[in-house]
Every structure is written in structure tokens, then in C-alpha cells.
Amino acid sequence: MNFLKKISIFSLINISLIAHEFPRALSSYNDTHFTKISDILLNRIKLEPFNLVTTIIFILAIIHSFLSSYLLKLAHKIEEDHREKIKRGEKTNGDIKMLAKLLHFVGEIETVFGLWTKSLAFYQNRIDLKLALLVAFFLAGLIILGGVQSWWIAPVLGNLSQYPLMISSIVLTSFNDNAAITYLASLVENFSESNRYIIVAGAITGGGLTIIANAPNPAGQSILKRYFPKGISAIDLFKAAFIPTLIFAFIFIIFGIIV
């Protein structure tokens, strides 16, 4: 195959990929005739297999965010061991191991979603992040990864009664920015006004359970991280916020947000 033919084929492939819009508009799935959520989701995976890929990537990014404090602790341990070996004369004084530096980088909560977002780079417009703050990088990644979850979040929210909807909104907010959850809920067709209030109530209630639940949380961590040299534990944060979250949810119920 000569050079010109290779270029032509490559160009055609690029054109076909660029023409493929992702994420697809929810209306393009034409699945209003399905009654079961499982049928809707399976149909959307069949029509757009990359939906499943992006969701797996999103889940891996969430797992990574929960492991970030552990990765930082491991990096500190490697550094301490290295310094101890220098004192004992087993190592010469020099740079810390590359592994420790790598663990420091991947353990920073602000870089988690930015790193995983690179796997979806083909579906993004060109973005210059050279001068962006780490917090902005984190949020950009969260919106990109979370935004393509509408294929399953929208039908799930649209088929829940009020109390399960409140609980689901709180849980989903814990793994997405709460603004993203309210936006995805707005995509659900024929969503009642009361259900919209419930989504907002749940998004507000769950905004403190994790670092990624609310946009100011990563900013707060960046400001306070000097007081946590080994990183902020995602599990400890969740445990500390759990009771206040229950109280806040109870207040919304008592004052008639859920009616």
C-alpha cells in the first residue's frame, strides 16, 4: 500500500471518529418503550458500548480518590525509609526514589480525575490546562467523567419514588459534584417540580461526605493540606460527615421539603 493510500485511509478513519458524537443525546436512544431500567441500560450499552467503558473509568477514578491518602502515606514511608538508610550509611545522600515522587503525584486528590480524564482525551476539545490550578483540573476531570454518566443516572432517577430519590441523590452526590447531579436530573423528561426539590435537597445534604461531592471541598483541602502531612483520609472524612449528613437530611424531611 503506497503512502497516499495510507494517508487517505487514515483521514477517513479520523473523519468517521470525529463525526461520532459522544456522549449521545439521550433522545437518540429511542428507548421510551422500555419499562425496566435494566432493559434501558442494556439497550444504551448495545447502541453505544463506550458508555460502559466511561463508567468503568469513572468507577476506577472514584476508587483512586479513596486510595489517595493511602498512596500519600506510602510515599512518606518510602521517603522516611530512604532517609533512615542514609543515616545508617546504606544509601548515599541524594534524591528521593522516583517511586515516592510518583506516589506523591498520583496521591494528590486534585490530580485524580485529571489523570483518568486523559483516557477520554479523544472525545474532548483541545483544552489548555498549563496555567490551570490543580483544583480546576480536578473539577474539569470530574465534570467530563461524571457528565457522560447520564445514560444510566437519568433513567435511574426518573424511576424512583421520593424517599429512594432523596437517598439516591445523597449517594450519587458523594461520587459526583452535586452541581453535576442536579444538572443530570434536569435531563430527566417529565420530572416533577417536587422531585427537582428532592434532588437539590439530597445534593446539598451529601455535599460534605467526600472531597469530590462539592466544588469547594477540593479548594478547602488545598488550603488545609499543610495541616495533614499524610493526606486527608477519605474514610475518616466520610465517618466524620456521616452523622451531620443524617441530621441535615432529617431537617429537610421535618421542614416539609419531602411531601
Describe what you observe in this structure.
- α9 runs antiparallel to α10 (193-205).
- Helix content is 67%, strand content 0%.
- Mean pLDDT is 76; it is low at 3-19 and 128-132.
- 29% of the residues are buried.
- The protein has helices at residues 3-19, 37-47, 50-87, 98-107, 109-117, 134-147, 150-158, 162-174, 178-186, 193-205, 216-224, 234-254.
- The protein has twelve helices and no strands.
- It is globular.
- With 259 residues, the protein is mostly helical.
> Portion of residues in helices?
55-70%
- Please identify the oligomeric state: single chain
Question: Low-confidence segments, ≥5 residues, pLDDT <50?
Answer: 3-19, 128-132
- Report, as a whole number of angstroms, the end-to-end distance: 69 Å
Radius of gyration: 22 Å
Number of DSSP helices?
12
Describe the main β-sheet briefly.
Answer: none
What key attributes describe this structure?
259 residues; mainly alpha; disordered N terminus
Compact description:
This protein is mainly α. Helices cover 67% and strands 0% of the residues. The chain is globular and about 75 Å long.
List the helices and strands and how they pair.
Elements lengths: L2 H17 L17 H11 L2 H38 L10 H10 L1 H9 L16 H14 L2 H9 L3 H13 L3 H9 L6 H13 L10 H9 L9 H21 L5
Helix pairs in contact: 2-7, 3-4, 3-5, 5-6, 8-9, 8-10, 9-10
